[in-house]
Design goal:
955 residues, alpha+beta, 5 domains, 23 helices, 40 strands, 28% helix, 25% strand
Length: 955
């Protein structure tokens, strides 16, 4: 039964017509649009023009290259009204089309935007040099020259355009390198990019140089393949202008599937067929590393020439660094190193982490809007020259759950004034334990664990460990469960030891979050590769080594524990070819701490959430208004409900001249009856007769058109306190499926606000007869069990009046028989029961009184025996049917005697008193167990309403 409060709210709310729904939708849309426009700059129209621009670059500056470009100009931009510019670069494997949507967004807010396809990709000429300062960076400088010559571009000096440079991944590194090489750049927004390309592809987590790093073969192979054939993708900067991983590489792919974007262009130099469009030195370095699995000084030097790490001290352009937490290619530490190197020179720097990345795409909408706002704010001040200087606060986010509207992920953003770096603002140590263990390195590193793969950094958590660490190839060390949640923001560290018969070992250190059921999650699939040399053969002689794991943003819930895993092979990395068995353990022996960085920040109201807060405020105002209306209505009703009709004070229910009309029919024409203490009253009628409508009015679920209802003398109105003396089951049960039956009953009673002592909980459970099933979740209940639970709910508190609509619905015959006994027992000690049912036989055997309704009016009412009336045919249940037949055949006035098929006799006594027939049988020594008139309630019912009767109401 719905609570009285919900019933009152339902009546107080306006009826939801189609017109009202449309109006409300339009208002919400307008409000959302107004807030969006309020936080995003004014948008303008623009034009876009494609052209091939020839530039000269190379080590000597005279190498010709043709670049495929597209130029976006806002309407109204001219020599008299110049606008600032943005040079927008794509990611590896992309083209100018990759960033089209982002360029359009920037043009719409007033920037002239130049996009281009980098050399070696698409229709552009030249070879791929991996953002070489002599090639790709000089190409970009020549494009700045081109912008400076445009009359509609604002300039700071002749040949010096007012320009910001944006890009993701490959394009992000270009932005950093270009700012270091060309002082004309006014601001940059590099996203999910690298600090040291050699360390990115040859990482080592104990601090060793990249030449000793572990080759990241998965990502390297994907990059090399995209430069020799098809591209890695053509996705843009998700969420609008430069707000996330923008690129054609693996960043920002809307559906995680790479699409064509690279490849050879017509007339491009073929060179070595195995190298495709890569420059020979880049190709040779890759082939050597991929073949041996080890870096060389020459290869490391080549990659470092394309790394911002070597030129950070020359970057003067204010820098907004955006990095993704779901990124096994360029993890968060890359942005941390860039930020520290740039800020060391006094250059304004801001760092923003988000939940996406090369493995996580653009992140939830809340993340995209946050980063979009930060980017627009950064460019607005440092390129347009508008607004106050942006804050240098550090912002990050973590996944908070699912959106109730579209089931997409929702990220919550946080900020803190001082950038803490990957070391965190504070740390917490959590002990892990486990003995040293032997682990095998398989030949050629195969088979290998699957922790991270390009485009799928969280694969291990998705697979739930099915394709994770392999038996015999990893060691586990566990912590105790956490007493409270812990937010990890930064790079955890752990101390390990290892012994190897070869003196060397390559290990992959992982930190899992394990829930109470044992399901393990590897945050973003991040792994710390380690190459250890000079190892002893005995673990007892091994020295501890501190491993710095990749930075993460992850909440470990209370009750979860941490697991440190040391594995010997990983699908994403190159492992030693020779098989070996290592012994690995914790740095402190059988126990050791994991140091976890933490940051406590303030939640961020992102632009996406602004309009939600406004709507929430409006909804709150509406709710407050409804509460006020309900309170006023309730107070008004209570003012008229202080008197008691003395003649009905001891009567559970009195209905007088009840009428209920709808727009096109009359459901209840005129109904009046009483239910007295000790009675079980059945409300009968054909479908549509008005039974359920009568009960709905009685329970306050709908208002009557006319008439009055009294409960123990109190006139019944919505919200009347006397409703607490009624228990009801009307319109079927409604329970929370994930809770047990017992918990559902407890929750219902708590919602009434009445003291627990008044619930009579155990008595109601005994009456319902659910047994131990009451502690099972309701989702496992059959329909009949739900019905019995609903009856138990109606009986909580043992109300003086029980109102039940079809209480035996869904019950089997034994349960129906038990329900008869339950209702009869209940109508004792001054209580009463009103039952609506279409099972006439049940009403006949259960109820003391009956009310027959037809076409909205009562056609008969009174004790069941009176409604059934006398019958000339009687059924006798006797101890000896043969002897009884002989006695009855000799009696005068008995016409026929026949068996009933169950050992009894059906006798037509033709007016002879039943008592005389019984006396004759007893004198003859025949025992009489039962005498039942053969006319049933069904016969009387059909006589009253007719076999083809149809009502006007609902039931």
């Amino acid at each position: 039964m719905p609570s009285p409060l919900s019933a009152r709210l339902r009546r107080a709310l306006p009826r939801m017509t189609r017109r009202r729904v449309v109006t409300a939708t339009v208002l919400i849309a307008l409000l959302g649009g107004a807030v969006t426009w309020a936080v995003w700059p004014e948008r303008r129209d623009f034009t876009a023009t494609d052209s091939m621009i020839s530039v000269r670059s190379g080590p000597t500056g005279d190498e010709p290259v043709t670049l495929d470009t597209r130029y976006y100009v806002p309407d109204g931009a001219s020599a008299d009204a110049p606008v600032p510019a943005v040079l927008l670069a794509h990611g590896f494997g992309g083209t100018k089309d990759t960033v089209r949507a982002d360029a359009e967004d920037l043009a719409e807010i007033g920037y002239a935007v130049l996009t281009f396809t980098a050399r070696g990709f698409g229709r552009s000429g030249g070879e791929i040099h991996l953002d070489s300062p002599d090639h790709e960076v000089r190409d970009a400088q020549r494009l700045l020259d081109w912008l400076a010559a445009r009359p509609e571009i604002r300039t700071d000096a002749p040949g010096d355009p007012r320009v910001g440079v944006l890009g993701g991944s490959y394009g992000g590194a270009l932005a950093l390198l270009l700012a270091a090489q060309d002082p004309r750049v006014d601001a940059i927004v590099p996203m999910i990019t690298w600090n040291d390309l050699s360390r990115s592809f040859l990482p080592e987590s104990t601090g060793r140089e990249p030449v000793d790093g572990v080759f990241k073969k998965g990502w390297a192979g994907l990059f090399f393949g995209s430069g020799t054939g098809g591209g890695l993708g053509a996705a843009g900067l998700p969420g609008g202008p430069a707000t996330g991983p923008g690129s054609g590489d693996t960043a920002g792919l809307p559906d995680g599937v790479p699409t064509a974007g690279g490849g050879l262009s017509p007339g491009a130099p073929l060179g070595d067929p195995s190298c495709g469009r890569f420059a020979r030195d880049v190709c040779a370095a890759y082939l050597e590393i991929a073949t041996t699995g080890r870096g060389t000084p020459e290869a490391v030097e080549l990659l470092r020439r394309s790394s911002p790490a070597t030129v950070l001290d020359r970057i003067k352009a204010p820098t907004l660094l955006v990095q993704g937490a779901a990124d096994t290619l360029f993890p968060l530490a890359e942005a941390d190193l860039n930020a520290r190197g740039i800020a060391a020179n006094g250059t304004p720097v801001r760092v923003a982490w988000f939940t996406g990345g090369h493995d996580g795409g653009s992140g939830p909408q809340s993340d995209r809007d946050r980063l979009k706002f930060l980017t627009a704010q950064w460019l607005g001040h440092y390129v347009k020259g508008e607004g106050e200087p942006p804050s240098d606060t550090f912002t990050w986010s973590r996944i908070a759950g699912f959106d109730a509207m579209d089931r997409g992920l929702v990220a919550t953003g946080y900020s803190v004034a001082d950038y803490p770096g990957v070391g965190g603002a504070a740390t917490r140590e959590l002990a892990v334990a486990g003995p040293p263990q032997a682990v095998a390195n398989p030949p050629a590193g195969n088979p290998a664990a699957i922790s991270s793969l390009p485009f799928a950094g969280g694969l291990s958590s998705v697979l739930g460990g099915v394709a994770g660490d392999l038996p015999g190839q990893h060691a586990r060390f566990e912590s105790a469960p956490l007493d409270e949640p812990l937010d990890v923001v930064g790079s955890p560290t752990v101390s390990i030891r290892a012994a190897s018969p070869t003196g060397e070992a390559v290990l992959f250190v992982k930190l899992y979050d394990v829930d109470p059921k044992g399901s393990a999650t590897l945050p973003s699939g991040l792994v710390a590769p380690v190459r250890l040399t000079g190892l002893p053969a005995d673990i007892g002689q091994a020295r501890p080594v501190t491993v710095t794991l990749p930075a993460i943003v992850h909440r470990v819930e209370a009750g979860h524990h941490l697991r440190v895993v040391l594995a010997t092979a990983d699908q994403a990395y190159a492992s030693p070819v020779e098989p070996a068995v290592y012994t690995v353990g914790l740095g402190g022996g059988s126990t050791g701490p994991v140091t976890l960085p933490t940051v406590t920040g303030e939640p961020i109201a992102t632009p996406e959430l602004v309009w939600r807060w406004v709507l929430a405020g409006l909804l709150a105002a509406i709710v407050v208004g409804l509460v006020v209306v309900v309170a006023v209505v309730r107070h008004r009703h209570r003012r008229h409900d202080t008197s008691v009709a003395a003649e009905y004070a001891d009567t559970p229910l009195v209905v007088r001249d009840l009428r209920k009309e709808y727009a096109d029919f009359v459901a209840v024409a005129k109904v009046g009856f009483e239910v007295r203490r000790g009675q079980v009253v059945g409300l009968l009628g054909p479908n549509g007769a008005g039974k359920t409508t009568t009960l709905r009015v009685l329970m306050g679920l709908t208002q009557p058109t006319a008439g009055e209802i009294y409960v123990f003398g109190h006139r019944l109105v919505p919200g009347s306190p006397v409703l607490s003396r009624i228990g009801a089951l009307v319109e079927g049960p409604g329970f929370l499926p994930h809770l047990s039956g017992r918990d559902n009953l407890r929750s219902y009673w708590r919602a009434t606000g009445r003291p627990w002592a008044e619930a009579r909980f155990e008595e109601a459970l005994e009456i319902a007869g659910l047994g131990t099933s009451v502690d099972r979740r309701v989702r496992t209940y059959s329909h009949g069990m739900r019905q019995r639970l609903a009856i138990a709910q109606a009986m909580l508190g043992l109300p003086e009046l029980l109102v039940l609509d079809e209480p035996t619905d869904g019950l089997d015959p034994p349960q129906i028989a038990e329900m008869r006994r339950v209702l009869r027992r209940y109508a004792t000690d001054g209580r009463a029961v009103l039952v609506s049912s279409h099972l006439l036989a049940e009403v006949e055997q259960t109820c003391t009184h009956a009310i027959v309704v037809n076409k909205g009016a009562i056609v008969a009412a009174g004790p069941v025996d009176e409604i059934v009336g006398d019958s000339p045919t009687v059924q006798f249940d006797v101890t000896d049917a043969s002897a009884a037949r002989a006695v009855l055949d000799g009696l005068e006035g008995v016409r026929t005697v026949a068996g009933d098929g169950n050992g009894g006799l059906v006798v037509d006594i033709d007016g002879t008193a039943r008592s005389e027939v019984v006396a004759e049988l007893v004198r003859a020594g025949v025992g009489v167990d039962r005498v039942v008139p053969r006319r049933r309630l069904e016969d009387a019912f059909l006589a009253l309403v007719g076999e083809n009767s149809r009502g006007s109401g609902d039931r």
